[in-house]
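Internal QA ticket QA-208
Title: Verify multi-chain structure generation after dependency bump
Assignee: T.L.

Test input:
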Amino acid sequence: MFITDIRKEFYEVVANQRVALLVASDVDALCACKILQSLFHCDQIQYTLVPVTGWQDLSTAFLEHREQIKLLIKQDDDLGVPSYDDIFRDEEDEEGDDSGNESDDGSEPSGKRRRFDEVNIGHYWEILFDYEQYEYHGTSAAMMFFELAWVLTKDTKDMLWWAIIGLTDQWVHDKITHMKYVTDVATMQRHVSRHSHRNEDEENSLSVDCMRISFEYDLRLTLYQHWSLYESICNSCYTSCNFKLWTLNGQKKLQEFLADMGLPLKQVRQKFNCMDMSIKENLRDVIEESSNKYGLKDIRIQTFGVHFGFKNRFFASDMVHATAALLESTDKDGSDSDNFIKALESLSRSNLDRLHSGIDLAKKKLLAIQQTVASCICTNLILSQGPFLYCYLMEGTPDVNLFSKPMALTLLCKYLLKAFVHSTRNKRCKLLPLIMAAPKSVEKGTVIIVGIPPESEISDKKNFFGRAFEKAAESTSSRTLHDHFDTSIIELKMEDRSKFLDALITLLS
Amino acid sequence: VSSTNAARLNKFKNKGKDVGECRRRRVEVNVELRKAKKDDLMCKRRNVNSCPDEPTSPLQEKSQNAQTSRPWTVSEIVEGVNSNNIETQIQATQAARKLLSRDRNPPIDQMISAGLIPKFVHFLGMTNVPCIQFESAWALTNIASGSSDQTAAVVSGGAIPAFISLVTSTHQHISEQAVWALGNIAGDGSGLRDLVIKHGAVAPLLSVLAVPDLSEIPRDYLRNVTWSISNLCRNKNPSPPMPAIRQMLPTLLRLLHHEDKEVLADTCWAFSYMTDGPNDRIEVVVETGVVPRLVKLLGYGELTITTPSLRAIGNIVTGTDEQTQAVLDAGALAMFPKLLHHNKANIQKEAAWTLSNITAGKDTQIQEVLNAGLIPYLVDLLVRGDYKTQKEAVWAVTNLTSGGTVEQVVYLVQANVLEPLLNLLASKDSKTVLVILDAVNNICTAADKIGETDKLCLMIEECGGLDKIESLQSHENEVVYKAALNLIEKYFSGEEEEVQSVAPETTTDGYAFQISENQSTFNF
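Actual output:
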């Protein structure tokens, strides 16, 4: 059922029960979980926490806890109830476009027709998929539960920070439109200023365990506070794509860019923390000015930062990258539930070491992503299949095991598509969605497949691959596993890959 | 008089020597359209597969790894399909398909001369390797989409039976491709169409639509099947075998009630092909009871559907009076004000053509046209229609004057048909001129019957018609000259006699005729 009044229909229902909290593996879900845990703690509600990675997990967990379960909350992004506006807007999109290649002049149809490889863009949207068959993300689950806590007047700064991280996760992983992000940031900003006013005396007086959240107009440079500026620029999607750092020209341009800012290479390459204070002081303005010259018009973005005590400063996106990296750590000794617990820990300010280890993992992941993007682009691994682009990471590609995880592969997919759009001169290809496949399990002989919508500034981030994957699997009886909550992520038997793709091409052509 | 009437009637519809006069014109138009459409198709190119490399890429220059996106050469494909490795064969077939699907200059002839067709046809039969069936089906589809020679090459490779057995493949994408290929082959012309039918394509094609609810079928698949079936109904000399038509009719009737526009359009075209023939062919269509549905589709409001449904209706009214009556009974005439004033000239023309065949029917049928208030529209088309439409409107008028009662002809004249009709005597086309002269003759005959000849002649003279007719006496075409001369002699040269009977009195402002008003109840 749809919950419309989260307090009455959800919280008051669970308040006197023992609750099984089933949490999906993404950062937003984890943040929502943290908020709920605090609330339950506050109201002394007993709960069992069960991480679930997909539908199979969910049903197992459900069966195991059946006795005690009164209400099942599926706690991932889908929980966000889409506003009715959204739904109606979708319906309108359905209408309009006259379909097809057939000319509209009413002349007699041709006696023969050649079948082209390519589909006229925008046409296949309506071929098989009505609006219900698109998948998209609503408001962050963490934000929803923060609103609940606020309604219950039990919201704390920690909860607010988690809500912010949940929202930032949606932005970092490109799940929502820029418009939606900015709107939600504004909502969060109001909460932030409310909280900073509320406890001005106690908490704002600096102390070792104080926590200060601030709205920031920061740089789109990933983890730069914990890296060197140079490495951050090289491994941030935004700068890497705009400079085309995988090309010699791009590298040259980057050097010019640094020179233009007047930053000595030595400074730029050393740890950000150790950079001269004089440089750091108005660094953001300096970078913005030079960026504008180099066509990077929107290098700054609205976000939030936090201070823990005196020296620990993090941006919301740092937290997202760190937690995501921990959650999908490919560390041999860690099981999924270990990863889950570690990721959850990294969100507590009491465990900054965990957070730092997450940041280290995240850096490795970003490096791997950038290198993979560069090699895919340079060796032309992205193929146009007609209705979509396709890229297959072969077994043996460096860091390929990292990309057996859904979030990492999705992020790679997004970065790769952005990079591709910047590098190709083929206008048609710029408008295509991308499907990536990577080995999932060598023993089982499976691959993981992710499909993402076309890259464009006006993209509504709606993903139709879920339905398409299902249909393609159905028509070829490919052995697929549609287990992930994100239906655009599936697992597939290696041998079935080509027939599955062919069916997909046919389906979308 | 009645015998001359009958003789004239024979000129229209398919009763007399001029059988299919209208239809002969139809064929010309058809050929024109089809050719235009083909050119159109040639122009409607789309850009395909190419992801230009980033030239500044440092790795690119070193890497020889670009094979992934480079198209294969035909000889590489030949080598590939002849290998013993099925994977290689698949890749080669796919590469061929991609080459044939590219936008410009698909290497169809190279593929044919490389002898690839028999190989591809062989792949069609590899039931255990669906993806090679699909790739080869697609490749052959595109080869068959070319010229007649290219299509014939596919057929002589034995593709027809292979494709027919794929129609019922459990893999829908393979089935769809086979259906498409058969459509291309059948679309080549009567010969290959009949060959496809002879190989038994009809039953499997219909079987894939044998589901309780057509909306269960994926839309594009349904569109392809519909289009292919419509191609099996298409082309004349000879028309498709009757048994095949009878076999397809129930399914086509069902498709005509489907909601998809493209399915509807192609189905309407199928009906227009099936009705484009002698009366017995029209009869099998009419007796399915499809006419009311076709009439309804006339008002669908989509050009893609209006055009073929109007064509079908127009074809049906070239049939017998009974067949025409079925159209009238379905309320078709109520649709005509819109059609005759349609913003597309082509629709106006087709509507006028249809009307001309209705006015060639019984006087009760003509009366229905009058009652529907369509004469003013016809007159309007004579004035401002485009040239082809004007010609059709002329036919409609002439047919009416030929088969209508005197009252009906009088009504026509009262609706001011004379001036625009006579103006068209300036036409360069002697056929049209003859048809107009015929109409004038008919109208004069009617006037004669009610003794209004003089008044009519005056009207003709007043609108400049007499001058035009007189000048036709020096027309280069002998038939025109004779017809004009005949009219003049019959109605406009009785000076001597008429001086006696209606001697004109000179008045201040011209001549005043004393018109004998004997038994006349009608006034022009």
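Spot checks passed. The first helix of chain B runs from residue 2 to 9.
Status: verified.
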